[in-house]
Amino acid sequence: MKSYSLYIIFAVFAVALMSCESNFKEVQRINSVAFTPAGETENINLKYTDSGKVKAILVSPLMKDFSNLQYGFNEFPKGVHVTLLDKNGKKSYAVSDYAIWYSNTEVIDMQGNVKITSDDGKVMETEQLYYDQKNEWFYTEKKFKFTDEKGSYIEGPGVDFSKDFKIFNAQRNVAEINNVDPTD
């Protein structure tokens, strides 16, 4: 008689445990936060201005607006093309396969085949690059390659630089300098 009671108690306990797991999964599903955008925009052409002057133009086939979250952002899952304009009207172009713009910090995180090209032929290539709009500054910890208009290059892990490439900070790098005139 004792052994049957023990089996019955074990069976009831196993059934209760199985039903609790089912209920637990349902509670998890109900309590999960919906991570859906507040809106989506196709073929966006966004202009960033400062004091009435256009500083940047961002173009993308798709933007997802997550401003409904505590730390809102805009996602560009199909990539971006950004045109940066300096005070003299010179342009630099940045493209990437994917990007996120954090509105609170005004930082753009570009990822995948990131390439920046300046009006005078300088090119920066990397897999991820951040652009700080307030300070007009780029930075990455990923491998990069920078090529100037003469074909000289510098590459290595991590770099930060101004949007006009006039200030350039890199460490642990390799370079090849072409067409250097020692009298310059």
Give the uncertain stretches in residue-range form: none
Strand content: over 45%
Overall mean pLDDT score? 83
**Biggest β-sheet: strands ordered side by side in the sheet:** 2-3-6-7-5-4
* Structure annotation, total helices: 1
Share of residues in helices: 10-25%
* Form type: elongated
The span between the termini is: 104 Å
> What integer value in Å does the Rg equal?
26 Å
Oligomer: single chain
Biggest beta sheet summary: 6 strands, antiparallel, barrel
- Structural class by helix and strand composition: alpha+beta
Key attributes of the depicted protein:
51% strand, six-stranded antiparallel beta barrel, 184 residues, elongated, 1 helix, single chain, alpha+beta
Describe the protein's topology.
Layout: H1 2-31, E1 39-50, E2 53-65, E3 74-76, E4 80-85, E5 91-96, E6 98-102, E7 107-118, E8 123-132, E9 137-147, E10 153-162, E11 168-170, E12 174-176
Antiparallel strand pairs: 1-2, 2-3, 2-4, 3-6, 4-5, 5-7, 6-7, 7-8, 8-9, 9-10, 10-11, 10-12
Q: TL;DR of this structure?
A:
This protein is of the alpha+beta class and 184 residues long.
What does this protein look like?
The protein has one helix and twelve strands, in the order H-E-E-E-E-E-E-E-E-E-E-E-E. It starts with a helix and ends in an 8-residue tail after the last strand. 16% of the residues are buried. With 184 residues, it is of the alpha+beta class.
